[in-house]
Design goal:
This protein is α+β, with helices and mostly antiparallel strands. The chain has eight helices and seven strands. A hairpin with a 2-residue loop joins β6 and β7. α2 crosses α3. It is globular and about 60 Å long.
């Protein structure tokens, strides 16, 4: 259970039981999420748990056992305590079409991350970072998505450097994705390569690219280098 239980349940009939939960931090409706199914869990820390189907839960717990490390690193970097109390991670069936999706208290991930060597766990670090930028504070309109995703790429890379104790990971990951950003800019129209795109009435899928993620990151990283990490 990822929401904060009130510690009470109400039996409304012989066949139905109602549980009461409480979300103390205000959220927009789009961040409300439910996971329903035959799932089991494994505790990772007093505030972290992995959920998955019984056949997958052990592999998921092994792959994502750095959840608490990532959370603690993010708290240290942001100098803000994790605001949502619990952090749970359901590993969904293969039909889930995204790498990961952030929600308050919970991140949904695809089982394609279960590769056995933790080489894709930066997705979890990314979604954990959204607990601060994206869920706690978010952009007013989708034209300013870079405020979510640019900051998240910066924080994700800081988290991974801290968790792996290797500062070189920051630049290495950024360089790798920079080439992908250049390819997106080459094929997109000018309206969609801007940091604040002109969305208009076009297909939202056409506007989705690495621009808000990586172009936003590079703006922030340039500012950090200009003023210094401590001041930034």
């Amino acid at each position: 259970m990822s929401a904060i239980s009130t510690g009470t349940s109400l039996s409304t009939s012989e066949d139905t039981k109602t549980y009461l939960f409480e979300q103390c931090v205000p959220i927009p409706a789009c961040l409300l999420a439910l996971a329903v199914g035959q799932i089991e869990s494994k505790e990772m820390s007093p505030r972290c748990r992995v959920w998955a189907e019984p056949s997958v839960v052990t592999a998921a717990a092994s792959e994502f056992d750095d959840m608490e490390v990532f959370l603690s690193a993010a708290e240290k970097i942001t100098q803000l305590p994790y605001p949502w109390k619990r952090y749970d991670l359901p590993c969904l069936p293969p039909s889930f079409p995204y790498g990961g999706t952030e929600n308050p208290c919970v991140t949904f991930v695809t089982p394609t991350l279960l590769v056995g060597d933790k080489s894709l766990v930066d997705v979890v670090a990314h979604e954990i970072a959204h607990s601060w930028t994206g869920n706690l504070v978010t952009n007013l309109t989708w034209e300013h998505l870079w405020l979510n995703e640019g900051y998240i790429m910066w924080l994700q890379r800081k988290i991974m450097c801290a968790a792996k104790k290797d500062p070189l990971l920051f630049g290495f990951d950024a360089i790798g994705r920079f080439n992908d950003l250049k390819e997106d800019i080459r094929i997109l129209s000018d309206d969609y390569t801007r940091l604040v795109p002109v969305l208009g009435d076009g297909d939202p899928d056409n506007a989705f690219s690495l621009v808000p993620y990586e172009k936003g990151f590079h703006l922030l990283y340039a500012l950090e280098r200009r003023v210094g990490s401590e001041a930034f």
